[in-house]
Amino acid sequence: MIQRINNKWKVDIRPNGHAGKRIIRLFNTKAEALNFKNHILAQTAAGKEWNPAPKDNRLLSEIIELWWTHHGQTLAAGADQRRILDLFCKALGDPIARTITTEDIHNWRSERLETIKPSTLNTQMISVRGLFNILRKQKLIDYENPAAPIKSIKVHENSKAFLSAGEIEYFLKALDSHPDRDVAVICEVCLATGARWGEAMKLHYSEVHPDRITFNNTKTKRSRTVPIEQALYEKIMDGRTPGKRLFRSCRTTASRVIKGTLNVSENQATHILRHTFASHFIMNGGNILTLQKLLGHANLDMTLKYAHLAPDYLKEAVNLNPAKIARERIGKDSDQEQATITLAR
Length: 345
Prior knowledge:
Number of strands: 6
Largest sheet: 3 strands, antiparallel
Distance between the termini: 117 Å
CATH superfamily of the largest domain: Intergrase catalytic core
């Protein structure tokens, strides 16, 4: 509706019907009012919203903070991911988040490749993709994920290093005489249960029993229980105060002790104990599905990296290879041919 009010012309319409949004504007001339009304009706007919929401001009640092508030702080490794995202933000110069392009991220990744390994960069890219994916899924942003088209860099899969039986024996003897009892006991817990260092270090008195340990503070946030020997239980509890956390934080000290005692690479340190447990479990005939439960892996693919160490796996490679089978058939054919010749005589 258009009507004159004093010296103005008033447009009062609901382009989407009585239940729709009401639009009221005042104009100096009837022609301006009529043009506005026709424009609104044409926009509505074309499916375009009048007075659409303003563009999202939040900076990348602002949406990182949004991610942290609504999601990141709930993750076991949330603080680590936050550090990666802050570095990403700084490298890009904290632009308006919706203006970031796939090319921008490609360029950032290329620069990072000059200083870090491809496998590490793949991990950092997971954090960048996750930032946009989570915010879009939770309807906190309305634009596409610029990192979505970027695939992970293919890297050669390395065998997981582990300690030999001799190295384990040497290491345990060294731990028996080491003055730092927290480090020594946590190392043995990791070797005996396959626990991650952080899981073992944060154990509470109530989680350790004479025949088992229950790990509640895990990477996957799923509790799991691993059987232990009475002797290990007694070693853990020796001199401990009931009702308190069993060990102090000592990862840095432990890494120094492990690298000073064993010949391990700089980036393995405490994690080699977990790999050692898993590797020897399979080599000694353990079941791969049981190992998955003991390690707390979210899917079997992660555990299958140890499958090649199974005795049966190695035996099958010898017994079932096609060359061996073909040779056996040739041998049988020769025996049958020889037997036929003998009978004919």
